[in-house]
Design a protein that fits this description.
alpha/beta; Rossmann fold; Dimethylsulfoxide Reductase, domain 2; 2 domains; 5-stranded parallel sheet; 4-stranded parallel sheet; 17 helices; 37% helix
């Protein structure tokens, strides 16, 4: 039946690969590179798909990050070019959390163990959350700020640290570009660190505890007490904000930026008990032989109207297609459900029903979902025990790498069976994902004529 009618029929992997490969090959031969896209939620692997897209020569990666965590990422990125934090909760003296991070920590849920380890060593836990969450109930200090007022409280604490001399002079003097600040903002002032501190104190003079109380509802005495506690913790001050107040809100980036300001002031960046960039605590493989970068810029992902977009403007894709600014000839949605995830799901449904906008939609997913209903092919992709790759996450102040392999394929090998592809032994013909992309790439360019 037509796409979206729900009239499905089973097909073989060979049929699927040949059909998709023929369309991609034709698009590449005709110079329609921007009509091939891979739209992913959370990748769950270490960059292999980006390697495939580069090999195809397409700028085809799209993500959901701009409705997920990009606000918080941007705030961190402004500080040091890294877009996520990795706190050492277990060795901290003070832990400051924005929102209910102890009980609901995205894929950082191992932080719960580290936070409790820190508390058992005497760390003070501070939670800024409008709700009396489970995390707030376990905290030494609950700061129930009004939604959107977090930055005011954080800057008020920064002011106290500056005014009372609780900052880490050595760190600021050596790692903050204070000379550039003075040249840009106060060109006539003396080029000394003391002048810098004086000018910064003037800059934040208006962020008094009383002002923060008026903005947030958090009592001024508590703001002062917590600020002094942070200053006394020094380099053993761990903070975290993933999404919560910093994401999905206008100006939310200021929350993570102001939060990390406290780490910078106390010198608790990259220290035991402090907060590091996430990539310091995450294994990232480097391939021995990388394809060249793409030669094509896909304005459906990064439109010219939004030059400062930190990640792809993915939620605008169906609107651009309706405006006939381009089309998707081959579109992969991978563990991704825009019909449900994005606020205008009906626009996505309308676009998916049009073969003029989406020539072919392939849903790569381990589970049935609303977006898969509007696909031409629903291809079963596996969970961790059906993958053959490595992965790593910044779960604590250490680096680890996990090796995943298809359990049933390995069992078949040990039993002496000859297996060419993982789907031959997996229930439901679930394919190992990297195998799928490698085989698809061979069928796109079997003779190497595309380079």
């Amino acid at each position: 039946g037509a796409r979206g009618e729900g009239k499905w029929e089973r097909v073989s992997w060979d049929e699927v690969l040949d059909d998709i490969a023929a369309r991609i090959r034709k698009a590449l031969q005709e110079g329609r590179h921007n009509e091939v896209a891979y739209h992913v939620g959370r990748p769950g692997h270490e960059g292999y798909m980006d390697r495939i897209l580069k090999a195809w020569g397409v700028d085809g990666h799209n993500s959901h990050t701009n409705i997920c965590s990009s606000g918080a990422r941007f705030g961190y990125n402004l500080w040091y070019g890294y877009d996520r934090p990795s706190p050492d909760h277990a060795n901290a003296k003070v832990i400051l959390l924005i929102s209910a991070h102890l009980e609901s920590g995205h894929y950082f849920n191992p932080h719960a163990q580290r936070i409790i380890e820190g508390k058992m060593k005497g760390a003070k836990l501070v939670t800024m959350d409008p709700r009396l969450s489970n995390t707030a109930s376990m905290s030494d200090y609950w700061m129930p700020s009004y939604p959107g007022s977090e930055a005011a409280v954080l800057l008020a604490m920064a002011k106290i640290i500056l005014d009372e001399g609780l900052y880490n002079r050595d760190f600021l003097e050596n790692w903050v570009n204070w000379q550039d600040y003075l040249r840009a903002k106060h060109p006539g002032a003396a080029m000394t660190f003391e002048t810098f501190i004086e000018k910064v104190r003037e800059e934040y003079a208006g962020f008094t505890p009383e002002y923060a109380e008026q903005e947030s509802g958090v009592k001024a005495p508590m703001i002062v007490e917590v600020a002094r506690l942070i200053g006394q913790a020094g380099t053993a001050f761990a903070t975290h904000n993933w999404r919560s107040a910093a994401s999905g809100n206008l100006g939310g980036w200021a929350v993570s930026r102001c939060l990390h300001f406290l780490n910078v002031l106390t010198g608790s960046v990259g220290t035991p008990g402090g907060t590091s960039p996430n990539v310091w605590n995450k294994f990232k493989p480097t391939f021995f032989d990388n394809p060249p970068a793409q030669k094509f810029w896909n304005e459906l992902h990064f439109p010219n109207e939004y030059p400062l977009a930190f990640f792809e403007m993915s939620f605008l894709l169906p609107h651009f297609l309706k405006e006939k600014r381009g089309r998707m000839d081959v579109y992969f949605s991978r563990v991704f459900n825009p019909v449900w995830t994005y606020p205008d799901g009906f626009t996505w449904m309308e676009a998916f029903l049009s073969e003029e906008m989406f020539g072919m939609h392939i849903a790569l997913t381990p589970t049935w979902n609303e977006t898969a209903y509007f696909a031409d092919y629903v291809l079963p992709m596996g969970h961790s025990a059906e993958r053959h790759d490595i992965n790593s996450y910044a779960t604590h102040s250490g680096v680890w790498v996990a090796f995943r392999q298809p359990v049933l394929r390995e069992a078949a090998r040990r039993a002496g069976k000859q297996v060419t592809f993982t789907y031959e032994v997996n229930p439901g013909e679930v394919w190992e994902e990297d195998e799928f992309w490698i085989e698809l790439s061979w069928r796109i360019d079997p003779d190497g004529s595309l380079g």
